[in-house]
Structures are given as structure tokens and as C-alpha cells.
């Protein structure tokens, strides 16, 4: 005989899930309006980590009795508050940016692969080739620069071989870029 207990829920569970989800949705809107959309950006590794943490809290509070709705609301408030404080400190104190953000790293300078930087980024040449294909690069001569961004995303700047070079201002804060 099959045991179907895994599919059932306590009588009040669906109502509590709905109530928790609605309350958290309203809180999320409120916190986002107070702190700003930057709360969900992937502009830095810190931003990305906060977004993951917020999602984890939302899931935990919505589906389980612990943490409670009040505990989840407080935890969300703390994370949004930290995001607000760190975001403002980043604007005012350059040292904070260096503390919480990874610096972008140049992986390719034109068609030349920079193996030392690939190692620093913990990437293989196969990973790099996959990113080039994803960016629709068909010839290495098209590559102007490949950058691992502070979020871990990889940006591929490419153009036809006879197009102008990339403006140096776009690579100003990139480690490994010859200045």
C-alpha cells in the first residue's frame, strides 16, 4: 500500500501559507520602496548575496512555522537596512566599495587570452570559449575585451575587426587592463 502522507498538509497550513505570502509580499513592496530597487540588483557580489538571503527568508517564512512571520519580517528589515547602509557608505567612502565588492578582472585583451587572470578568476579556457559562443563571437579577431564582472558575470565586448577600439573609460576600473 502507498503512503500518501507526504502529499497532505495540516488543515490550517494552506491558509497560513496564503496569509504569510500576502504579508511578506506587502512587506517586500514596502521595504523595496523605502530602500530602492538596488536591493535586488546584481551590481556587486554583496547585492547578489543579499538577494539570495531575502529569497531564502521568504521561502522559509512562507512554508514553515519557524521562523515566524514576525521573525521573518524583522530579518527582512535587517537585510534591507544593511543594504541601505552599505549602499550609502559605498557612495560616500571609496574604501567601503573595495571592502564589499570584487573588482572586475580582464580575461581577454583583444583576441589575447590572459591565462594568469583566468586562473585568478578560477575559470578554464573552455569556460571562456563557452562565454564567447554565448556572446555570438564567431572569430577571435572580433573580441575587444572579456571581463569577469564583480558579480561573477562575464561581459564580452566584441565588434567587427575594422570597428573602433573599446573606449578606455569602459575598462577604467578593470584589473589587468593596461592603462
**How many domains make up the coordinates?**
2
Roughly what percent helix? 40-55%
Give the class from helix and strand content and strand pairing: alpha+beta
What is the ordering of alpha helices and beta strands? Answer: HHHHEEHHEE
What is the rounded Rg?
Answer: 22 Å
Q: Please report the distance between the alpha carbons of the first and last residues.
A: 72 Å
Strand ordering within the main sheet = 2-1-3-4
Biggest sheet, open or closed, and with what strands and sense? 4 strands, antiparallel
Which residue ranges are poorly predicted, with pLDDT under 50 across at least 5 consecutive positions?
none
How much of the sequence is in beta strands? 5-15%
Number of separate strands:
4
Mean pLDDT across residues = 88
* Count of alpha/pi helices: 6
Shape: elongated
Question: What are the SSEs and their pairings?
Answer:
Layout: H1 13-35, H2 45-63, H3 69-92, H4 94-100, E1 105-109, E2 112-113, H5 115-120, H6 125-134, E3 143-148, E4 154-158
Helix pairs in contact: 1-2, 1-3, 2-3, 3-4
Plain-language structure description:
The protein folds into two domains: 92 residues, no CATH class; 67 residues, CRO Repressor. 50% of the residues lie in helices and 10% in strands. The chain has a four-stranded antiparallel beta sheet with strand order 2-1-3-4. The longest helix has 24 residues. The mean pLDDT is 88.
Characteristic terms for this protein:
alpha+beta, CRO Repressor, 50% helix, elongated
Amino acid at each position: 500500500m502507498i503512503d500518501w502522507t507526504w502529499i497532505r498538509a495540516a488543515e490550517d497550513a494552506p491558509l497560513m501559507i496564503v496569509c504569510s505570502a500576502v504579508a511578506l509580499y506587502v512587506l517586500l513592496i514596502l521595504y523595496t520602496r523605502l530602500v530602492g530597487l538596488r536591493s535586488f540588483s546584481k551590481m556587486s557580489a554583496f547585492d547578489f548575496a543579499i538577494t539570495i538571503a531575502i529569497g531564502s527568508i521568504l521561502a522559509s517564512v512562507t512554508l514553515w512555522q519557524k521562523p515566524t512571520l514576525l521573525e521573518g519580517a524583522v530579518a527582512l528589515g535587517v537585510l534591507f537596512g544593511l543594504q541601505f547602509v552599505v549602499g550609502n557608505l559605498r557612495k560616500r567612502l571609496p574604501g567601503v566599495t573595495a571592502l564589499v565588492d570584487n573588482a572586475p578582472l580582464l580575461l581577454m585583451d583583444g583576441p589575447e587570452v590572459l591565462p594568469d587572470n583566468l586562473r585568478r578568476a578560477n575559470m578554464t579556457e573552455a569556460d571562456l570559449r563557452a562565454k564567447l559562443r554565448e556572446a555570438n563571437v564567431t572569430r577571435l579577431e572580433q573580441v575587444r575585451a572579456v571581463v569577469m564582472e564583480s558579480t561573477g558575470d562575464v561581459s564580452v565586448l566584441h565588434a567587427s575587426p575594422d570597428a573602433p577600439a573599446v573606449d578606455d573609460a569602459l575598462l577604467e576600473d578593470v584589473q589587468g587592463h593596461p592603462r
